[in-house]
């Protein structure tokens, strides 16, 4: 990465940013930007445009879309028409919901005329409307009828609707809730709802025109985003000479620096300086990985980008993550299900989900391979059908293997940390960590390998070579951890580091047991659901002598249990297989590899499409 310090006249700022936007190769630092009220309005406009585009793209796939709709003249007109139609549709739907509730409430009263009710009231006859519980009405209706004229209108399980005919001078005393009816009955209210629905339907024409013009709306949104770029640069630019000059900090990739240099040299009234970025700079980061490692950038981005000048760990943790995912899911059948989902996502998900689809495919393929090796297919033992193949006894063998995998990844992380420190600060700065690495590697080779039936000739826990390696590591760790300090101080600091490292490394290694635990729990649950399906359906007793329809019912019942049970298990296991390998990567591996977080990704000022 190349750093540019650029000085130009303040009046040239907008033109200069437009030139950079056309070039599309320079990232202008806008750190510390705090949006003003005007900036927030621009941000809200961008968000509103994005929502409009998403809505209209979905609308264009619906049956209401008119493919022959006329385009708007420009994106702003199309967006304004969409906003007006959306607001009107919201208003209409709210009004229809309100009227529908009224119609449902007054439906039991049937048809009535407000005009006739008013004429009766003018002659001294008043109709009053009540509701009460059926038990109360049945008990009191005879008593009420002795002094009042009562007519039952409708009845449900929870209420009776009735009318009391009263005069102006008569008193009405009933055990019920009086209701005030609206001017229109339910049929008239439904007719009003139908009119509103027709008006809502007519809005589809406006939405169709806006959907046909969605490309124009996207162009309008891109222009607003470019405007925001300029606002951020303007707000964070350093101003000198009473505001007459501005100083900008820019970044470009080394392989495109010549084009940037040419543009800056040809630009009038501009001064710039350039130099290579250093690890002390807050330089933006752009990852450059091969196609396989690029898939796992999606995982790494959930934590942080690496600091500029350090090592990108994505190509290193990627294979580990894929393996950990397969171990945690640990079933070839579940892997096939995820593989089919990944292929479907690749086929129908679009360009935005392409990376996630390929990541799913890669991890699912690893799960199929490891699940087969672990002798599990939807909880069934593959060895029952292929006895000649030697499978892994996951339950009895993998506990120690998971610890060995943990030690290996931690050693890889420590080796990376040593290499980076030596590169940045010299080999002498790594003596303390190098000593620990030598001791841990020696112990793993001399003590760990024989546990798996492997051994290095002449190198075991009692060999002189082993003690020599441990001795060298101890000297580096205890006496040379900082060659600029007094050896006695180094010894004390080394003892303290020894305590921290022993407890920390033990905790880190034990964390890898989760690989064994999650894989085992998922496999056990799969077997449990298989047993439940056979036991509850009765298929475990066999089908000999059973009528065909009984066997059919048993098969349907077992299939339902298997589908629901394995569906739940797959969902839970897939989440665990996604989260826990990520935790091992971001905590255990990143810590031992000395990972440092970067500030931001490389995002050049450019034309937005």
Provide structural commentary:
- The chain has helices at residues 13-23, 37-59, 75-106, 114-122, 134-145, 186-202, 204-212, 214-236, 257-266, 291-295, 297-300, 314-329, 332-348, 354-373, 394-425, 431-451, 464-478, 487-511, 513-537, 548-592, and strands spanning 2-9, 27-28, 125-132, 149-155, 160-167, 177-179, 238-240, 245-252, 270-276.
- The model has no long low-confidence stretch (mean pLDDT 89).
- It is 61% helix and 9% strand.
- β7 and β8 (245-252) form a beta hairpin.
- Among the domains are: 2-87 and 203-276, no CATH class; 113-180, no CATH class.
- The longest helix has 45 residues, at 548-592.
- It is extended.
- It is an alpha+beta fold and 609 residues long.
- The protein starts with a strand and ends in a 17-residue tail after the last helix.
- The strands form two sheets. Strands 1, 2, 7, 8 and 9 form a five-stranded antiparallel beta sheet that branches.
Order of helices and strands: EHEHHHEHEEEHHHEEHEHHHHHHHHHHH
Based on secondary structure, the structural category is: alpha+beta
For the biggest sheet, the summary is: 5 strands, antiparallel
Helix content: 55-70%
Mean pLDDT: 89
Shape: extended
Percent range for β-strand residues: 5-15%
Number of strand elements? 9
Low-pLDDT sequence parts:
none
Number of helices: 20
Radius of gyration: 37 Å
How widely separated are the two ends? Answer: 25 Å
């Amino acid at each position: 990465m190349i750093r540019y310090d650029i000085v130009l006249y303040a009046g040239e700022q907008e033109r200069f940013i437009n030139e950079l936007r056309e070039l599309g190769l320079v990232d202008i630092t806008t750190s510390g930007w705090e949006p003003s009220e005007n900036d927030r309005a621009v941000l809200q406009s961008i968000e509103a445009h994005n929502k409009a585009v998403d809505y209209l793209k979905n609308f264009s796939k619906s049956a209401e879309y008119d493919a022959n709709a006329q385009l708007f003249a420009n994106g702003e007109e199309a967006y304004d028409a969409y906003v007006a139609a959306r607001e009107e549709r919201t208003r209409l739907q709210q009004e229809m919901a309100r009227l529908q509730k009224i119609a449902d409430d007054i439906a039991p009263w049937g048809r009535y005329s407000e005009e006739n009710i008013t004429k009766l009231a003018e002659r001294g006859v008043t109709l009053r409307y009540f509701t009460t519980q059926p038990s109360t009405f049945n008990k009191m209706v005879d008593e009420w009828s002795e002094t009042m004229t009562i007519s039952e209108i409708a009845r449900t399980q929870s209420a009776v609707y009735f009318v009391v005919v009263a005069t102006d001078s008569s008193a009405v005393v009933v055990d019920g809730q009086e209701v005030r009816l609206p001017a229109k009955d339910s049929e008239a209210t439904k007719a009003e709802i139908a009119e509103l629905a027709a008006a809502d339907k007519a809005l589809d024409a406006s939405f169709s025109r806006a959907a046909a013009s969605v490309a124009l709306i996207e162009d309008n949104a891109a222009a607003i985003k470019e405007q925001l770029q300029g606002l951020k640069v303007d707000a964070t630019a350093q101003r000198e000479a009473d505001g007459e000059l501005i100083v900008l900090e820019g970044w470009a990739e080394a392989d495109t620096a010549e084009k940037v240099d040419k543009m800056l040299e040809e630009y009038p009234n501009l001064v710039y300086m350039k130099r290579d970025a250093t690890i002390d700079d807050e330089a933006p980061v752009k990852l450059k990985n091969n196609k396989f490692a690029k898939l796992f950038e999606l995982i790494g981005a959930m934590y942080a980008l690496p600091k500029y000048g350090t090592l990108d760990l994505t190509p290193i943790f990627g294979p580990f993550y894929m393996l950990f995912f397969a171990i945690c899911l640990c079933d070839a059948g579940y892997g096939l299900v995820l593989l089919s989902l990944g292929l479907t996502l690749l086929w129908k998900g679009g360009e935005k989900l392409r990376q996630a689809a390929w990541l799913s495919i890669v991890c699912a393929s690893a799960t199929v391979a490891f699940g087969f090796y672990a002798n599990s297919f939807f909880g069934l033992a593959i060895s029952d059908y292929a006895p000649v193949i030697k499978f892994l006894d996951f339950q009895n063998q993998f506990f120690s293997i998971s610890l060995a995998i943990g030690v290996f990844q931690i050693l890889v992380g420590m080796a990376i940390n040593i290499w980076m420190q030596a590169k940045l600060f010299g080999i002498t700065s790594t003596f303390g960590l190098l000593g620990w690495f030598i001791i841990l590697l020696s112990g793993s080779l001399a003590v760990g390998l024989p546990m798996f039936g492997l051994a290095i000739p002449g190198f075991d826990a009692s060999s002189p070579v082993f003690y020599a390696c441990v001795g060298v590591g101890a000297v580096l760790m205890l006496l040379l951890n900082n060659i600029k300090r007094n050896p006695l101080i180094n010894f004390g600091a080394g003892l303290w580091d020894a305590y921290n490292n022993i407890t920390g490394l033990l905790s880190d290694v034990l964390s890898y047991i989760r690989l064994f635990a999650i894989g085992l729990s998922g496999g056990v649950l799969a077997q449990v659901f298989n047993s439940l399906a056979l036991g509850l359906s009765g298929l475990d007793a066999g089908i000999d002598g059973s009528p065909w329809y009984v066997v059919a019912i048993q098969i349907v019942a077992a299939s339902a249990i298997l589908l629901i049970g394995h569906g739940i298990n797959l969902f839970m296991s897939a989440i665990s297989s996604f989260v826990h390998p990520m935790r091992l990567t971001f905590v255990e591996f990143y810590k031992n590899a000395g990972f440092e977080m970067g500030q931001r990704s490389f995002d050049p000022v450019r034309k937005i499409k």
